[in-house]
Design goal:
The protein is an all-alpha fold. Helices cover 77% and strands 0% of the residues. The longest helix has 22 residues, at 482-503.
Length: 504
């Protein structure tokens, strides 16, 4: 039996190391034919020794420059050594020389995807599928590429094909993560419930709990996460998710307990892993943010800033933290730095506008809000901000216009109804103002400011009996603004005069 036949037998038996040794024994024949170089490259590729494979294949191509198969194997070796540009060069060379197999197209798809050239990647993945339409690896890679191209429909279609062909935990995971990314949590839960293996029970239940928190089902999330704890899973992710769930059910004490445990785990990791300190501190800062502990959040941000002074995440959260503290000039300082790094974005323009508004720079704030609106922001928040800033400029009609846009999105909002009413009062639309003040009351507002303003509207409508009634409610709530006290006294005088005239 020739050494070539022995080699084939060893390969069929999956004795790849023995096959390599056999080739080495017969390397004296290497310069007479391609068999040695080509198969040595193939074997080494097969057992994951790609660097070595390259050396043999490069020498083989030098000796036998017309061997297309060796070019393809060399491309494979480069691909799996993360040298994707070189891989493409040799794989295409092999194709151009006539060696056309499905795996070559798959490898080209992979190489292009790693280089984020998604158009070419999908072309070669689809080529491979023409030969092997049921290849689950290629289908999955095509799905991920379509997702990268924002072709969500095709991505889902291909992931479903993978699941249909191979309904294992890997295909369930891929489809579930797609639904998670798309925030389709009902679909995510449905597919995750297909995981039956106890080996993945903790992973399954954690991901379902994550989805439940975002579906406003925190009680169900808590039940699953507590089960994970009982089964032995205990990490920062689980503790943080459990804390989030307890926050959603207004159990702040239990939430803080789990947040603190997560922090203690992060602190241990920080002590052991200096290279990942930035990312650990980021997680800790985020927990402090969720706890509304601004001082602690700032302490973590300071440590992160010492590591990366040009990091947009740090600058953005500095802006948020200082803004929430009422230190708006400091917030704007960091917001400007972030804008220089990131350029105009809806979030950053909105943040800058909000802080400017708090510093009585309403005109400048409005210009930024207009930019954010042009970029696509059209939510309740921006319309309320427009309303606030126009009101500060005493452009009350314009303020009312924007506040009503916000109200159209949420007619039960106490603050918006209150602001519309206040601005309507300033343009003498007293009946409209009264209606919106009453709406704010119906939605749950019952403070001195509200009743003082309702009293003021009734006073403007010359109904001093009701004016005094509401002023008294405000006074009983210890409302003592100077304007209110003057108006209260005036209304009482007017009511007394009318009562006296009536008695005459």
């Amino acid at each position: 039996m020739s050494y070539k036949d022995k080699f084939d037998e060893l390969v069929k038996a999956q004795r790849f190391e023995d096959a390599r040794a056999l080739l080495e024994e017969n390397k004296g024949l290497a310069y007479e034919e391609t068999f040695y170089f080509a198969n040595m490259g193939w074997v080494l590729n097969h057992i994951g020794r790609h660097q070595e494979a390259m050396s043999y294949l490069l020498k083989g191509i030098q000796n036998f420059p017309d061997d297309a198969w060796m070019y393809s194997q060399l491309g494979y070796a480069y691909n799996h050594n993360d040298q994707n540009k070189e891989a493409i060069e040799y794989l295409l060379k092999g194709l151009s020389m006539g060696h056309d197999e499905p795996w070559i197209h798959s490898e080209l798809g992979w190489a292009y995807r790693q280089l984020q050239d998604y158009k070419n990647a999908i072309e070669y993945f689809e080529n491979a599928l023409l030969y092997e339409p049921d290849n689950v690896w290629v289908l999955a890679q095509a799905a991920f590429t379509y997702r990268d191209m924002n072709d969500k429909e095709s991505a889902e279609e291909y992931l479903k094909k993978v699941y249909a062909l191979s309904p294992d935990d890997d295909s369930i995971f891929d489809l579930a993560m797609f639904y998670k990314q798309e925030m389709r949590y009902t679909d995510e839960v449905a597919i995750l419930n297909e995981v039956k293996s106890e080996q993945y029970a903790n992973w399954r239940d954690f991901e379902i709990a994550y989805a439940y928190n975002r579906m406003d089902k925190p009680k169900e999330a808590i039940e699953l996460l507590e089960e994970c704890l009982k089964r032995g899973r205990d990490d920062t992710g689980l503790r943080e998710e459990l804390a989030d769930a307890y926050m959603l059910v207004d159990n702040r004490q239990e939430a803080d307990k789990h947040y603190q445990i997560a922090i203690s785990y992060f602190e241990k990791a920080l002590a052991k892993n200096e290279s990942d300190s930035y990312w650990i501190l980021q997680d800790m800062a985020w927990i402090a943010h969720k706890q509304d502990d601004i001082e602690r959040k700032l302490a973590y941000l300071d440590q992160m800033y010492a590591i990366r002074q040009d990091d947009a995440w740090v600058l953005y959260h500095y802006t948020k933290a200082y803004g929430n503290q009422g230190k708006h000039e400091k917030a704007l300082e960091y917001c400007e730095k972030c804008l220089q790094l990131e350029g105009d974005s809806i979030e950053l323009l909105s943040l800058k506008a909000w802080n400017l508004g708090k510093l009585d720079q309403a005109a400048e704030a409005i210009e930024l809000l207009k930019k954010a609106e042009q970029l696509g922001r059209d939510d309740e928040w921006i319309y309320n901000e427009f309303g606030w800033d126009y009101s500060e400029l005493k452009e009350y009609e314009k303020a009312i216009e924007y506040y009503k846009k916000a109200l159209a999105l949420n007619d039960k909002d106490i603050w918006t109804n209150s602001q519309i009413a206040w601005n309507e009062g300033n343009v003498q639309k007293y009946e409209d103002a009264l209606r919106h003040f009453k709406q704010a009351e119906n939605c749950g507002r019952n403070d001195g400011w509200l009743y003082a303003n309702i009293g003021w509207v009734y006073s403007k409508l010359n109904d001093f009996r009701l004016a005094v009634h509401y002023y008294e409610i405000a006074a009983n709530q210890d409302y003592k603004e100077e304007w209110f006290l003057k108006q209260y006294e005036f209304a009482r005088e007017q009511l007394a005069q009318k009562t006296a005239k009536k008695d005459e």
